[in-house]
Amino acid sequence: MLPTLNASHWPTPPVSGTSRLARHPLNSNLDSPRLARDFARRTLAEWELEDLLCESEVVISELVTNALRYGLPGRHRMARAPIQLILMRQERRILVIVTDPSGEPPVLGEPDEFAESGRGLQVVAAVSEAWGWAPLSTGGKAVWASFAI
């Protein structure tokens, strides 16, 4: 299993001019994971990186689902677009970033083998090159995963 990176290990910012950024706000609806995957599919096709689609779609589904389930404290549940998917292409990697309004860090748990949920971050850790999270200066957090190009 890959090591979990915490907030102090945010990926190194790209060198100016070598990155591309795509952003998609998401509402707190049950169809948000699907909409996020659709956005990623279009974006990665535009960037000619379809070979990263399978793994990134799995991670996007897990991160958006976690943001919906754990990242929307009471008053944010009905807010318009409280979650955001950001895709960042750097020279040698793609970053998948999902932001939400909760400041609570994600927890990589050890699920019961018979549990029907609780494995999301384990899947993210297994499928991505690295993952972690960082608090946002505006409040909330960003949970990210990287994939080598």
Structure in words:
By secondary structure, the chain is α+β, with helices and mostly antiparallel strands. The protein has one domain (19-148): 2-Layer Sandwich (Heat Shock Protein 90). Helix content is 28%, strand content 26%. It has 3 helices and 6 strands; from the N terminus they run E-E-H-H-E-E-H-E-E. Strands 1-5-6-4-3-2 form a 6-stranded mixed beta sheet, covered by helices on one side. A hairpin with a 5-residue loop joins strand 5 and strand 6. The radius of gyration is 15 Å and the shape is globular. Mean pLDDT is 82; it is low at 1-9.
Keywords:
Heat Shock Protein 90, 149 residues, ATP-binding, ATP-binding protein, six-stranded mixed beta sheet, disordered N terminus, ATP binding, serine/threonine-protein kinase, alpha+beta
The CATH class label is Alpha Beta
The geometry reads as globular
The CATH architecture can be given as 2-Layer Sandwich
Number of extended strands: 6
CATH domain topology: Heat Shock Protein 90
What value does the Rg take, in angstroms?
15 Å
Biggest β-sheet: count, sense, barrel?
Answer: 6 strands, mixed
Number of helices: 3
Overall pLDDT metric: 82
Strand order of the largest sheet: 1-5-6-4-3-2
Class per helix and strand makeup: alpha+beta
**Strand-residue fraction?**
25-35%
End-to-end separation: 20 Å
Number of domains: 1
Unreliable spans: 1-9
Tell me the CATH superfamily.
Answer: Histidine kinase-like ATPase, C-terminal domain
Order of helices and strands: EEHHEEHEE
DSSP helix fraction: 25-40%
